[in-house]
Stage V sporulation protein AE (Desulfotomaculum nigrificans), 117 residues
Amino acid sequence: METYLWAFVVGGLICVIGQLMMDVAKLTPAHTMSILVVTGAVLGGLGLYEPLINFAGAGATVPITSFGNSLVQGALSEAKNTGLVGTITGIFEITSAGISAAIIFSFLASLLFRPKG
């Protein structure tokens, strides 16, 4: 039960931060998303995002900040194995499944539903 509570609290706080960035700072959704991804990348690069994942579980892995963390972790792990080229290939290797799934399911949804416009 405690795990679910912390996942809810941490995930909710990340979302509240994003909402405040749009409402109070008047940032666009694109700017907000970019800042959250970069924040996750910086925290991941400093080794601070993994303890947050261990503490909050899905509360830290579901929000967009986790994508930034995944990019950095992929780059760092492949850079250790293959050098400088691994920095670029690692980014794509670790995030390709999620990105591919988003593209495929978005395409399928567009075939099934007609947007109102």
